[in-house]
Design a protein that fits this description.
Two copies of one chain form a homodimer. Helices cover 40% and strands 19% of the residues of chain A. Chain A has ten helices and twelve strands. Strand 9 of chain A pairs antiparallel with strand 9 of chain B.
């Protein structure tokens, strides 16, 4: 068995917790099949748990298959103004479980693009949160993955960040913009949950022999936790759940100090399973 | 004699040129002794030239000595709202020769402090430009010389810069603020004249054996040109005028490639004298 230390802050964030609870509440309220626009969170185990409760993910391209009055939940990542309007226009019952921190970004982007600012978003242009945010400024945003810019920048910029970005990349982005634009309005919209989780991972990974980062393969915030941990602790692995812990890995870490952290979409029960196995309780 | 190359952009900036011309125009118009609130520019030769034209610098502490109707020119650095009001209240004829780029900073600071932003100024807290700017937000600004901050920062910040700051320090300042505040409104108020002059000095100093930086000892923008040049060319000197060129220095640089640049307060005639001497024409 290993000596396992769980990061001070790890796992489910407020927004995700809220969206899952909302979906379950809506299911109870309507007592029929509930749909979520895309998987509610980036975690296969949670998705399976929801399906057991008659809550199914549906792709935006498939919404024609739904009937009037069907209930659809917008997940914590949020969507564009247009998508919500389309869902409503089709007669669906729309339940908005967008994380309030993301809604705050939508409002800022909407307001300041109307006030003549050019919107810049730091984030992954394929990520639903970014696609949603961009939909609040007529999809006109300049999107940067790493804070660098190829094009000439406009003079008046409002910049926001994906909630799960790294502070360092945000600093770089704002720094690069600051000398290439005259007026820069920067909203640090990195979620403090993300920040605190990242800080905890950073500290813990300096102090252990091995780090286990738990979270969905597609989860942006989990990938960042992995990168941060890996930089301090070369022996860092990324798993989705305890089933990926091989006997070989468990054996290698016998008597070692193992740190555990988890992304925002990882429920407590999965974290607990990993710790139990590494501590030899399974 | 040396081979002298003058930096592409050097010397008098628009704001200083304008203030000197304004003072001379006012002198002509009123045809009496004219006062400037502090030396019009940081250059002793120009100050002497102005005195020959009956234009004298006076300290703010001495304005009681002036009579009603006396004409006083506010120099390009600008002053606080309060100072202008005090001068007018004393019955003086106030001519405002504040650089329009500095006036723009005053307006921004005034507007955004009233809108609830906390003002941060990057600059030298002893410099008249900074003292003036701070006077447009009830002297409440947080002033940083190098972009670092000891104190905890407020959540809503509007940051401006002394017009003569280095781009690098501005980038650092905005970068440091960006991760310690939620909403940051950054106006890059570094004057493009300064920027262009600094870029020219930076390029030229990489390419010469010796750099001569001409400008007042107290001139902030000249000191920055010196620092930039010195970093590329260890053999860099800072002089106020051609009289400081020693025979020894001229001898040492015989046959060498010498770069020349000058701060915003250095008139063309002083630059020309330096070039003539180094090229052996005097």
């Amino acid at each position: 068995m290993s000596k396992v230390i769980l990061a001070e802050n790890a796992g489910f964030c407020f927004g995700v917790q809220r969206a899952v609870e909302e979906a379950l509440k809506v299911k109870k309220q309507y007592n029929k099949k509930i749909y979520t626009l895309g998987p509610l969170i980036h975690n296969n185990d949670v998705v399976m748990y929801l399906e057991e409760n008659d809550i199914y993910a549906i792709d935006y391209n498939d919404i024609d298959k739904l009937n009037e009055g069907d209930v659809i939940v917008i997940r914590s990542h949020g969507v564009s103004k247009e998508v919500t309007e389309n869902l409503e226009a089709r007669g669906l019952e729309v339940v908005n479980a967008t994380c309030p921190y993301v809604t705050n970004i939508h409002k800022k982007v909407n307001k300041y693009s109307e006030l003549g600012y050019n919107i810049v978003i730091l984030g992954d242009d394929n990520h639903p949160e970014i696609i949603g945010i961009n939909g609040w400024c007529n999809n006109s945003a300049i999107i940067t993955k790493d804070g660098t810019f190829d094009q000439k920048l406009p003079k008046k910029i409002c910049v926001v960040s994906q909630t799960t970005e790294k502070e360092e990349t945000w600093k770089n982005t704002v720094s690069n913009l600051s000398s290439n634009t005259k007026e820069l309005l920067a909203f640090n919209t990195i979620c403090s949950a993300t920040e605190v989780r990242q800080k905890s991972a950073n500290e813990l990974s300096k102090d252990v022999d091995t780090m286990i980062v738990i979270g969905g393969r597609n989860s942006s915030n989990t990938t960042k936790l992995y990168q941060i941990s890996k930089a301090n602790c070369p022996n860092t692995i990324h798993i989705e759940n305890s089933k990926e812990l091989t006997n070989e890995f468990i054996e290698e870490n016998r008597g070692k100090k193992v740190g555990v952290t988890a992304g925002a979409s990882t429920p407590d029960w999965i974290i607990k399973e990993v710790i139990d196995i590494m501590e030899g309780r399974n």
